[in-house]
C-alpha cells in the first residue's frame, strides 16, 4: 500500500512536469480560460450577478477544468503509447490504477489552477461580484467534485487504454460534455431526450453542487441533496471502474496492443 | 546443475487481425506455434530468428505483458498469466529502440519515477540511482533531459532502468538495435558483467556476432516454431561438415562471377562488392574441389583465399534461411 501511494504521489508530480512542458497544454492552462471567461461574460453580460456567477464564473472555470481532465485521461494515455512507456507502466509492480489516478490528479491540479485564473480574471478585469460562502462548505464541495470528476476520468482512461483512437475520442467528448452537462446553461433547456444522458454524467452534478453551495438562497436540505446525489453517482462510477479495471487489465494483455502506436 | 527458472511448455499465441476498411474481415495469425524450452538460473539465453518469427511475442508472454492462447509458462515459479503481480517485482524488461523513456524528463528523474513504480524505498533509490548512472556511464548527464541524448545514451539509460529493481531475470528485446559498434560493445560488456553478478538474461537479437559472444544457449525460432536450441558451439558443430571459403575476386563484375560460378555448378554463395573488389563466400562440403575450380576459372583473379569453419551466421542461414 505504501509503495502504491509513493508511486501515486510521484506520478502526480511527474505528470504535472510532463504536461506543462508541452506548449499545447500551456495554452490550455494559461490562455484558454481567458477566452472561455471572456466569451461567456459577453454572452451573459446583461444577466443578474447570481446568474453571471453560476454560468460565467463557474461555467467557464469548469470548461477549463474539463479540458485539462480530458487531456489527462485520454491524451496522456495515448501519449504514453507514443513514448513507448505504456507497456512499462502497465507492467510495473505498482497497480496501473494508481498510475492513472496520479495522472488524473496531476492534471486536475493544473485544471484548478486554470479555474482559479479564470476566477481572478473575471473578478478583477470585469469587476464581478462573488458571493460570500462558508469556506468549509465550499472546500468540502470542491473535494467531492474533484473525487467525482477524477473517478469519471478514470473510467474514460480505461476505455482509452484499449483504444488507439483515443485522441479522436478525446476531441469527440470534449465539447459535447460542455453542452450536455450544462456548464453554460441549465440542462432543463436541453431537449427532453438528451436530459437522461446529462443525468448519468458526474460533471452535470458536480457543477450543480457548486452552484447550490454558492447560492445564498439554497436551503440546507438542497445542499445535502446535491452532495448526496453527487456522492451516489460517484459510487456507481467507482463500481463501474472497479469491474472495468479487471476486464481492461486482462483484455490489454489478451490483445497485446499497448505498444502499438 | 543450475535450476530451471523459466519453463515454457507448448506455448501458442494467436493474434486477431482485422482486414478491410469498410467490411471488416477477422483473420487469425499464429505468431507462436507450440514452443517449449527452459532457461537455467544464471544463463544468458538468446532467442534468434527473422522478423516476425515470434521472438518479441515470446518475450512479452514471459514478462506478463501478453497472455498465451495455449500452453503453460512458469517464470521463477510463478505463472505470468495469473500471478503477474507476484512475478513483476522480480523481473524487468528492456524493449529495444529509443522509446520507453520520458524524453522531457532528466535521466535521474526517469530513473526515480520508474524506481517508485517498482516500489523501491526512497533510501535505497538514493544509493542505487547514482550507482546505475555510473554503471552505464551517464553520471555526467544525469540532470540532462533525455531528448538531448544520443541513441546509445538512451539505450544505456534503458539498461539502468531495467536494473532498478535488481531483477533476477532481465529480458531484452533487440537491445543493440541501431547502436554504433562502440556503444554495442559497451552494452555487451554491461550485460556480461551483470550476468557474472548473477542476473539471468534472456535476449533477442538479429546480430549473430552478439549472440555468439554473449549467449550460453541459443534458440532459433522461425515462423513461430522452434528450429533448434543449443549452445553456440554445438549449433556450429551441426554444420561442421561444411567449410566456408572466403576470397576476393577482381577483374570481374558480380554478374560475371555469378555466371562463372553457376557454370562450374556452384550455386550456394554470397557476393559483396567492396571498393571494386568482389568478396565471395562459399560454403562447401569439399572445399579443396571448390578452390581448384575457382583457380581454374578463366578471367578471374583470386586473392586472399581462406578456408574457415562456419560462423553462427552460417548456421542461422542454413537452419532458418533454408540454404
- The CATH homology group name of the largest domain in chain B: P-loop containing nucleotide triphosphate hydrolases
**SS content category of chain B:** alpha/beta
> What is the N-to-C order of secondary-structure elements of chain B (H for helix, E for strand)?
EEEHEHEHHHEHEHEEHEHEEHEH
Question: What's the order of the H and E elements of chain A?
Answer: HHHHHHHHHH
- Quaternary organisation of the protein chains: heterodimer
CATH architecture of the largest domain in chain B: 3-Layer(aba) Sandwich
Fold-level CATH name of the largest domain in chain B: Rossmann fold
The mean pLDDT of chain A is: 87
What's the β-strand tally of chain A? 0
- Broad structural category of chain A: mainly alpha
Termini separation of chain B (Å)? 36 Å
Spans of chain A with pLDDT under 50 lasting ≥5 residues? none
| Total number of distinct structural domains of chain B | 2
Average pLDDT of chain B, rounded to a whole number, is 89
What share of the residues of chain B lie within helices? 25-40%
How would a crystallographer describe the biggest sheet of chain B? 6 strands, mixed
| Radius of gyration from the alpha-carbon trace of chain A, in angstroms | 19 Å
Measured as a percent range, the helix fraction of chain A is over 70%
Largest interface: A-B, 29 and 33 residues
Q: How many DSSP H or I helices of chain B? A: 11
Brief summary:
With 261 residues, chain A is mainly α. Helices cover 79% and strands 0% of the residues of chain A.
Defining key terms:
heterodimer, A: 261 residues, mainly alpha, 0% strand, globular, B: 323 residues, alpha/beta, Rossmann fold, Alpha-Beta Plaits, 2 domains, four-stranded antiparallel sheet, 11 helices, 33% helix, 31% strand
